[in-house]
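Shapes recur. Our protein:

. . .
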Amino acid sequence: MSGYVFAVAPCFGCKQLFSFDPHLVPSIPIKGSREPICQACVDLANPIRAANGLLPIVVLPGAYEPREAGAL
């Protein structure tokens, strides 16, 4: 039997629900836990980060896609 794995949670930035691969999604540390960030918020944050001399948030390929269950 084959299947897919993905997580659904609100984005820390905009609070919108989105699905993602929990192993690849960009996240930020908040009070000791990692909170996921959606693509739209990454797109908004990166120009601000660049203007402040920070490196961009890198979105890994497949971060917002389901993962095959056997690929964990």
Strands lie at 4-5, 7-10, 17-20, 27-30, 33-36, 67-68. The chain has one domain: 4-71.
